[in-house]
Amino acid sequence: MTGARGSAGHNGEAHARYAPGTPCWVSLMAHGLTATQEFYGAVFGWEFVPGPPQLGPYARALLDGREVAGIGQLSPDRHLPVAWTPYLASDDVDATAETVRLCGGTIGVGPLEAADFGRLAIGSDPSGAVFGIWQGAAHLGTGITGVHGTPAWNELVTIETAGVVKFYETVFGYERRAPDPADPDHVTLCLDGRPVAGLHGVGTALPRDRGPHWMTYFQVTDVEAALSLVTELGGRVLTAPHDGAHGRVATVSDPEGAELALVEGPR
């Protein structure tokens, strides 16, 4: 992730305020809040504290006392997919939300206040992929990266990138890095020359039951050990470990079906 930094020490990279457009937070809405906390607590070592009451039953996950992600509870009458959602930083969530609408996206939630934590909106791009927008106040976003259990990367998985890359460039001011000739529909989005997110067009390999969606990668120290824990705790391995651009990667789902990637950085 890219953003202004505080002191990091030896326990990962600490963050201050995130530059606009930077992925700054990830949140999961699940049906069983307690069971979901137990799963991720075991896999990533997270502890939990209550979140803003305006968001209903919601918990903030901590590592060494620093916030890394959020988990909320879906209302029983809301039949929404259980999925991780990245939040992109904004200095003015209302203006960003209006730009989303003008560029062909939609805003499904907000903008609204989350107590003194900040202001948020949840929207979707023209292909239907859901993302959040976060204007931090007391809560700036993920407080630490670079260690086991922290978000490492976010990537949009879609049919083809040409239809949506201009949307993200216009709304969030991203620059586009030239694709690798070996993977021509894999676009890296940058801010001030620094990679912050990716777009990956997979064509007909996109699951019909999911459609375009954002995938969050979480860093782990040992991907094989993490996979053993995932399956032991009721999750599933969706793709076996393989070497990718960011390290050794595997895709899994938690017991409720939320998909995420685990990445072990290069040694």
UniProtKB/TrEMBL annotation:
Coiled coil: none
Domain (VOC) ranges: 22-136, 150-265
SUPFAM superfamilies: Glyoxalase/Bleomycin resistance protein/Dihydroxybiphenyl dioxygenase
Pfam families: Glyoxalase_6
Protein name: Bleomycin resistance protein
